[in-house]
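Bit of a strange request maybe. I'm writing a small parser for structure token strings and I need a real example to test against, not something I typed by hand. Could someone generate the tokens for this chain?
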Amino acid sequence: MENLVKYPKEDHSYIINGGILIYDYNKKFGTSSLKELNKKMEDSKELMIEREKSVKLGEKIMQMEREKDDYKEKIMKMEKKNIETREIFLNKEIDIKTNLYAVFEKKIREKDDQIINIRDNIIKKEESKYEYLKKELEMERENRKNEINRIQDWLNTEKNNNEYLKKRFEDDLEREVNNQTKCYKEELEEMRKQLKEYYDKYENKNKGKIFEDEFYRKVEEYNDKEEGNKWKISHVGSKYGGMCDIIFQHKDTGQTILVESKNNLNKNPVPTKDVDKFYRDVLDVTNNAIGGIIISTAKIQKKRSFEREIVQNKLFIFISHFSLDNIGQLFCNLEYMIGENKTNNNELSKEDRNELLVKQYDYYVEEGNIHKTRSKKAYEKSEEIREIYYKLNQKDIKIIKNDEKKVKKVKKKDKKDKKEVNFQELEENCNIIKKINNVKQTKFYLKHKTNLGEIILQYFSDNYTMEKKLEKYKTEKKEIITHNIIKKKKKTEKMLNNIKIDTIFN
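Reply from user aminoacidic:
Good idea to test on real output. This should exercise your parser:
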């Protein structure tokens, strides 16, 4: 029994049965087959070992099946969770889209309400206009009826029972009423058009009136402070027909110049009809004007920004894009017109005449150089003035101008040579001085201040290198103290005294 305890309980019955079997066998067959019995016992042990292995294998298989079922259960849970997550995401997406649609629909409703309100307002205005006109027509009909009744009463009072006359009168009266009604409708339609036109242009016209008054005030102020009341200025405006806005009369010479002012929008230049009226006003002999000036805050049609023209021996000046801050330009041109009138009347001296010819010659030469499209015409004008100058002075103006250019070049060169750089003063109070190869000082220098407040002076071998460095420092927003960049002078535009007029000498 002590040995039996060593084995598992489930195997006890098997061991007991095996022992009984051996015992019976031995008793029956003796010990002759003991060896065979031992062999069988060993075989049975191996069989038991295999059986135990199969049992353990079966247990492992069952355990794996249980684990497989667990995994399946986990996978099902994960799929279920995934489905739930997807449903939540879809619900959120649906909610967002629903909210956006609601907001969009709300905005559409608001816009629709606005459109409906605007339409209702327009309808109300039109209805009010219609009601007003309807009342006017009804009042007119009522007045006509009253007139008819009055006349009928008068006829009855006078005992005039002539049916023919009565019928004729009524027909004429009805015809008159119809004609008047038709006229009223036409006048009403015309008033609507005028009302729309007035509404569209009211602001501009108002600005035009304000501009005209402000222009007159500025002119009076400039004449008083800068010109010593040289001019007698009259603001005519639209009071008189056939005249411009302002009349300038020189107090010494008594000469009159008409000035027209226009305050137009940039998209609405001064039309040709206004320019033609300006021509007519100045050329009108009753105005006794020597010329006229028209200024505009916008463009003048078919005219350049600044243009002079002589018509019937009278000078016309056209100034576009005029500013009230440049009143002096107007008075400069007024003085020019007075001098030009003296020229036309041969009141200039020989020196003044030659000076005017030189200015004209310079103008047309510069005109031909700048404006290539007008170079031929400008060249012909300059040659014409050149010929006139030669006839009057027996000198070639072209040679004179070339000699003047040579003298100017020599003077410019001498001035350039005389210009020297004071390096001692330049390098004073500098924290860092950067020289070329650490030894050379040049005329190309650049002084700037760093973000830390250090003053740096740097020399360069040429102008180009210094320009590049200057651009870099400006990009970095460094403070530039001084530099010496040599730039080529560009061609300047025509000065005010370089005038364009037709030749005044035969």
